[in-house]
């Protein structure tokens, strides 16, 4: 029901002079536009603020992954893509329901023809419903659902890619931290050797040239420390970027327990499956296969819909109109100024110059391409799994070798250090032994975290990275 005051206001505006009505119409239009703009501003400003993340404490790998899944741009876009597909499914389902339209006309002229007023008003409703379309609505709905399934699988692939990137960046930070520690230890030993060399020179045991040699080695170790610290800062800026944070945010990560266990035990976990088993798991788990199958089904429905375009569509139409201009002038017998109509229509294409036929041929070729790509995907996945499997095996062996290198380099350094202390070894022998030990420690850190990254890449290639 319309309130009486509002109704009188509407009637007063309709019965006013043409100039006044034009002014009122302009004011109403302006107010409507302003209200719509204000509503848009409210909708944009009503978005939920992102929760604050406590970065004061060291983050574990699981925490980094959780932050990335919530805040990274790739996952936000993935969620938006899924929401878009959900809307398309709803739109396809809505085609089963009738459509109702409202229409209103306002005409103004500077002439009066055949006794009519210079302004005319007309209101109406129109309804339309598709009675029969030979399955086109069903095909559109099925296609929308397959596109949604493809998006879900694509989002899962996006999720695994993000987890891989975050894990690699996390291990890179840990590796750089360990390399900085190693460089600090080596530099401290070099500084100690330089000071000891100066003492030997003052005592007359060594010559001044030995001091220059020790200082050169110290400078090289200092430069190595500087490079490792710079690499650490770059790694610490890369990780927040992947998490959807400002690269300037300083993140600290938790101590890697797996590396501590390795240092205590000297052993690592090894893969217990064959490469064929890993490939089979990948063929069953990789989300790309589900995505490709959904794409094939969606394209098959597109081909079906293109063929159905040749078939007719049967629609029901209903119209209801009111001539407000005559009614407001006469002010009686409202039924004399309204009209309605109903009918059905059958529409189909008789000739289109071959457009529909060419569209069907195009979709057939696109479907054939997708099927060929799906066949090639299996070979690509099998190759990726095999490569990462072999890389992991190599990394496992590299860890064992680097561990032996550290043990041997430590023994050699201890022996030469003892000989140097009693004057049975020259300074160059000691420095060479220290260099070998430093290189062994560096190789061990690199080998361990390369092993961890290779392990993660294999899990990603198998489609089981969570």
Features:
70% helix; 4-stranded antiparallel beta sheet; 12 helices; alpha+beta; Outer membrane efflux proteins (OEP); disordered N terminus; elongated; 466 residues
Topology summary:
Layout: H1 4-14, H2 18-45, H3 61-71, H4 73-94, E1 99-108, E2 119-132, H5 136-203, H6 208-242, H7 257-265, H8 275-285, H9 287-308, E3 313-322, H10 324-330, E4 338-347, H11 355-421, H12 427-462
Antiparallel strand pairs: 1-2, 2-3, 3-4
Describe the fold and architecture:
By secondary structure, the chain is of the alpha+beta class. Among the domains are: 1-47; 152-310 and 357-462, Outer membrane efflux proteins (OEP). The chain contains twelve helices and four strands; from the N terminus they run ααααββαααααβαβαα. It has helices at 4-14, 18-45, 61-71, 73-94, 136-203, 208-242, 257-265, 275-285, 287-308, 324-330, 355-421, 427-462, and strands at residues 99-108, 119-132, 313-322, 338-347. A four-stranded antiparallel β-sheet has the order 1-2-3-4. Helix 3 packs across helix 5 (136-203). It is elongated and about 125 Å long.
